[in-house]
């Protein structure tokens, strides 16, 4: 996690400063063609799993629009942003008057990200779009991710979507479109991004300078599921060790299992372990779904039903723990105990 940007993973390049994007050539071509037609939508909902490049694509498209104010004269492709250009420098430093990046704000007391994008953050859009650009260029807002908006923030955004200002562009990023209000989804042009293939994953990691040990290459690519963000958690945050410890617990019985459960829970509940804690929860959820599918395909419907119910129970425990800020260690132990 970066000190300057709590939402940025160690080893990642901030999306406004990233000059390369891998695996999304079709999406880039679609956005370029849409803008060049002069009939592009005022709001684009960029969908896809976390960590696959949605924010990088959004800033890449923003740079394209600002560099080519007249859509009809714009090129038919998105070029790599020039980090030495005025637009490139301003976007990378967060000093662009034409781009507003809305994220979860940082709590001044704790220094941690707040749990949601609040209505005050979304209200900044009204002032941003209401101001006249000194250059007469487009004004572009990126909400990253829109999933994090609370109800009041979502309703405030809906009003802006209903009456978009001239020469304005809203780019909404979402990991889970179903979490958004249907009325927000219906007012956006939806663009789905898919997880990266193995070759694009390796190129993206090489671009970041992430060295994956040869012995772990296949494991990392498989477990990352086409997400560069997940690969960074596996390599830079000890995710591989966490998964190994989890599997070791499942294979151990008796008092020794209990000791290993407490040891893993201590690691995941430690201070500043939010990222690896969230990674573990995601892995457990995915593991249960995988086990349930395997049981169903093998014809063991009672076991598939048990695992499906267990998945629901685990999700409920996590939601309650997060909602009431319960002790993380005890929540993790209760989840591990649920595996029997």
From TrEMBL:
Q: What biological processes does GO assign it?
A: DNA-templated DNA replication
* Keywords of this entry: Nucleotidyltransferase, Transferase
Q: What does the record give as EC number?
A: 2.7.7.7
GO cellular component annotations, sorted alphabetically? DNA polymerase III complex
Q: Which SUPFAM superfamilies match?
A: P-loop containing nucleoside triphosphate hydrolases
Q: Which molecular function GO terms apply here? A: DNA-directed DNA polymerase activity
Keyword Nucleotidyltransferase included in the entry's annotation: yes
Has keyword Nucleotidyltransferase? Answer: yes
InterPro entries in alphabetical order: DNA_Rep/Repair_Clamp_Loader, P-loop_NTPase
Record's NCBIfam families?
A: PRK07471.1, PRK09112.1
- Name of the protein described by the UniProt record: DNA polymerase-3 subunit delta
- Gene source species: Gellertiella hungarica
């Amino acid at each position: 996690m970066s000190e300057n940007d709590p939402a940025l993973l160690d080893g990642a390049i901030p999306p406004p400063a990233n000059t390369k994007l891998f695996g999304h050539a079709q999406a880039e071509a679609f956005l370029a063609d849409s803008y060049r037609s002069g009939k592009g939508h005022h709001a684009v909902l960029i969908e896809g799993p976390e960590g696959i490049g949605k924010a990088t694509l959004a800033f890449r498209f923003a740079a394209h629009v600002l560099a080519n104010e007249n859509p009809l004269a714009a090129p038919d492709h998105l070029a790599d942003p020039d980090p030495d250009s005025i637009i490139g420098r301003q976007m990378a430093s967060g000093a662009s008057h034409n781009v507003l990046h809305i994220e979860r704000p940082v709590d001044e007391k704790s220094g941690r990200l707040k749990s949601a994008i609040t209505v005050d953050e979304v209200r900044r859009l009204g002032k941003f779009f209401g101001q006249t650009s000194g250059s007469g260029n487009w004004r572009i807002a990126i909400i990253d991710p829109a999933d994090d908006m609370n109800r009041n923030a979502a309703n405030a955004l809906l009003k802006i979507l209903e009456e978009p200002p001239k020469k304005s562009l809203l780019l909404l990023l979402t990991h889970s479109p179903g979490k958004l209000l249907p009325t927000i989804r219906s007012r956006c042009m939806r663009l789905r991004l898919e997880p990266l293939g193995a070759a694009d994953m390796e190129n993206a990691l090489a671009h970041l300078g992430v060295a994956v040990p040869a012995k772990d290459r296949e494991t990392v690519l498989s477990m990352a599921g086409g997400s560069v963000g997940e690969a960074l958690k596996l390599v830079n945050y000890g995710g591989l060790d966490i998964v190994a410890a989890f599997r070791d617990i499942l294979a151990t019985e008796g008092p020794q299992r209990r000791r290993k459960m407490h040891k893993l829970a201590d690691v995941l509940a430690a201070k500043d372990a939010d990222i690896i804690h969230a990674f573990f929860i995601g892995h457990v959820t995915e593991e249960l779904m995988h086990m349930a599918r395997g049981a169903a395909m093998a014809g063991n419907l009672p076991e598939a039903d048990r695992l499906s119910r267990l998945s629901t129970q685990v999700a409920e425990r996590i939601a309650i723990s997060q909602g009431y800020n319960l002790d993380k260690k005890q929540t993790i132990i209760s989840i591990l105990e649920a595996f029997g």
